[in-house]
Amino acid sequence: QADSRSGQLHSDMDLGDGSIKYILSGDGAGTTFTIDDSTGDIHAIKRLDREVKAQYLLKAQAWNRQTDRPLEPESEFIVKIQDINDNEPRFQDGPYQATIPEMSTIGTEVIRLTATDADDPTYGNSARVVYSILQGQPYFSVEPKTGEVRVSLAGMDREVREIYSIIIQAKDMGGQLGGLAGTTVVNITLSDVNDNPPMFDQKLYQMSVLESAPVGSVVGRIRAKDRDIGINAEMRYSIIDGDGRDTFDISTDPTNLFGIITIKKPLNFESKASYTLKIEGANTHLDHRFLDKGPFSHVTIVHVSVEDIDEPPEFSSAAYYIEVSEEAEIGTVFKTVSARDPDASNNSIRYSIEMTTDLGKYFYIDITSGALMTVLALDREELSWHNITVLAMEMNNPSMIGSVSVAVKILDVNDNPPSLTHYFEAFVCESAKAGQLIQTVTAIDPDDPLGGQHFYYSLAPEAANNPNFTLRDNQDNTAWILTRRGGWSQQDQSVYYLPIFISDGELPVQTSTSTLTIRVCSCDVEGNVMSCNAEAYHLPASLSRGALIAILACIFVMLVMILLMLSLRSHRKKPYLHDEEDNVHENIVRYDDEGGGEEDTEAFDIAAMWNPHEAHLVGKQRQDMLPEIESLSRYVPLACVGWPGSVCVGGDSNVQGYVLSKLLEADLDPCAPPYDSLQTYAYEGEGSVAESLSSLQSGCSNTDHEYDYLNDWGPRFKKLAEMYGVLETNNPPMW
């Protein structure tokens, strides 16, 4: 304690007269210890704690007060602090957590505890600790010296009690009376072991499912409960018996606790309305120490009822494949499909074809029997497959519709003749020799025989013995056209037409005749064609792009000029009637200035048409302009015009006669344009699209039409040329 006397220093030179002064220095001098400079007594001036500092190193020296000089060398000494029991034992890491398996045996170590005492273990019993349990009996005990906590009661069950809290005491002084003590808490948790078997809550489970539920659908779930937890409660479920073993399946959910019953095969209420399943649930992790508590499995019964629904009709087959010959007659029944109502009511069925699958309406199905028949002629070359969908509908419930796919393959019949692959035009050089190949021909046939195509070639009978060309069948579906002679000349004959007869190898045999056009051409020494009389002019290959553009630009300018000239010409006034090819038709009088309607009498006096003889005497003239020449009507003799059926106009105010006289004037002088022009009504005539439709003067032309150009149009127009009698009797043979 503070101010206690710790010791005394004394020098041999001290006579007790107060002439010597003691000085203290070193560890704790002046702060922890002080010295009486006259007597040399050392005192502690603050509380000492051995656990803080166990000893101090001090220095002392005797000085002469008069001379203030040391009388002897400095001396060192150590002050040791003697321990007392002032610190209780302490648990540094408390409270503690410990876990042991449930059902642990007696003596099983739970945890080892250690308490520390700050007192000096070498001095007395201040630091000797003894352990004891204050709370937790009779389940646990502690070793007094080691501090080991052990199980003292067997059969502790986690399912009964899982957590225990015990209090452990550590006391110094060997546990004797007066010793200091410290305590700590230990929380002990019992971990689970598989010591409880699973068990279903019910001996019988009732479930139901619709017969329309698809495979894989969940029917229900069951659980065998286990008082254990974790992996000790995980289950495995299986169907061990029952008439539904093949129809249903059971699996464990992701938590490994529940059994999920699913559909394994399609259900049908009409076939079987209920199923019984015997299901076993068993633990997956067994503890062999507790097998005597088993068995660790349990069995229950699951009854599954299938609920009936109104189902659509079902066809006897999932799909149909049918082969029909393309020569099948209209109305031929080629297949009968059948469907039935799977429900117990067994309603009547009506059949139809889905319209979108038979847009061409080739087929028809009998509404009651399901007989499929053709209603249009089939053509494999046009459409070789027909994929139709047949619908079956319940009479009493039209919303119940079943469908099936029907694939109809059209079988080939040899009903198409072969023909040349392309429209061939061959060339023969004037220098060609006899036996020279000039063309290889091939044929096509839209039919598709099983053994492949086989074509046979020959010249048509009318050309079989021609002296110019021959045909060689290569027996590989090709043929060669060869020359029979030499000495070809464009002047003698420039074009030959060679009819080729082609037949196929299938029954019934189909044949056709195609014509090959052969032109006689001038060739160079290498056999390249230089020119043919029917050959179009080709620009040289070396012509540049700029030159080609310039040529096209010139052509365009010329076309524009021609169109402009035609447009200007069309606006010129035509002669009145200058030849017998001009139109003769009804006419009206037109003038080119705007008039005042019915009130305009300045431009033309209608009275002149009623009295042509006096027309030139009428004083009323046009005011806007004068005619270039006077009317010619005054020169017309007043006699009957010499045309059959004409009417005399002398003194008779007949409009028809006046018009005919005006026509006669125009015929006499066609170069003088009359003041009043005669125009058409614009619906027919020379200027219209239909041209002149008048029959007048149509018989006065004795010119016959020429049809010689039909000779240049090839053999297809031969018959037409014969009809018009233009065939030349001295023409060379076509082949």
Set out the fold topology.
Blueprint: E1 4-8, E2 20-26, E3 33-35, E4 41-44, E5 55-64, E6 75-80, E7 90-91, E8 96-101, E9 109-112, E10 115-116, E11 130-135, E12 140-142, E13 148-151, E14 163-171, E15 181-191, E16 199-200, E17 204-210, E18 218-225, E19 235-241, E20 248-252, E21 258-263, E22 274-283, E23 297-307, E24 314-315, E25 319-325, E26 333-336, E27 339-340, E28 349-353, E29 363-365, E30 371-374, E31 385-394, E32 401-411, E33 419-420, E34 425-429, E35 437-444, E36 455-459, E37 469-473, E38 478-483, E39 495-504, E40 511-523, E41 529-532, H1 545-571, E42 588-590, H2 607-610, H3 655-668, E43 677-679, H4 718-723
Parallel strand pairs: 8-15, 17-23, 25-32, 34-40
Antiparallel strand pairs: 1-4, 2-5, 3-4, 5-6, 7-10, 9-13, 11-14, 12-13, 14-15, 16-18, 18-21, 19-22, 20-21, 22-23, 24-27, 26-30, 28-31, 29-30, 31-32, 33-35, 35-38, 36-39, 37-38, 39-40, 40-41, 42-43
What are the defining features of this structure?
single chain, about 725 residues, mainly beta, 5-stranded mixed sheet, 4-stranded mixed sheet, 4 helices, 43 strands, about 5% helix, about 35% strand, elongated, transmembrane helix
